[in-house]
Amino acid sequence: PGRSPLSFDHEIMMMNHVYKERFPKATAQMEERLAELLASSAPDKVRPLADGVLSFIYHQLIELSRDCLDKSREDLITSRYFYELQESLEKLLQDVSLTNLSSLSHRTLQFCLMRVEEHSEHT
Question: Start and end of every Microtubule-associated serine/threonine-protein kinase pre-PK domain (predicted)?
């Protein structure tokens, strides 16, 4: 069963209220760090990766970061959004595991996933 638009809008309003009341600096810090990451990841500032799989993963992480920043700036962050983000990262991690990348790359993705899980626990 789907949720009504009114229910979804109510959740967004409640989440934004919670963020602004409980974590006013946390949201600003998250947005600032995401903006810095995206600025430092601009195509003119990053050398292309020789490995096509790593390049794809890097691109996916940048796109997820961009989406998170956009959603936050538009006050559209919900608990459901973080669950979907976590699912996306888990799928990416699973895909990476299947391609037998180096353990360093695998650990890096696991670290990214843990950071998202930590952040979603605070919401």
Answer: 1-97
Cβ of 18: how many Cβ atoms within 10 Å?
12
Q: How far apart are the first and last CA of the chain?
A: 24
The first and second tokens of residue 104, run together, are 């360093």
Res 80 pLDDT > 80: yes
- The structure's pTM equals 0.63
Closest listed residue to residue 65, CA positions, set 109, 27, 30: 30
Burial of 89 (0-12, 13-18, 19+ CB in 10 A): buried
Residues in the chain: 123
Pair of tokens at residue 52: 């096509």
Task: Let me know: does 57 contact 98? Beta carbons within 8 Å.
Answer: no
What does the DSSP assignment read for 40-57?
HTSTTTSPPPSSHHHHHH
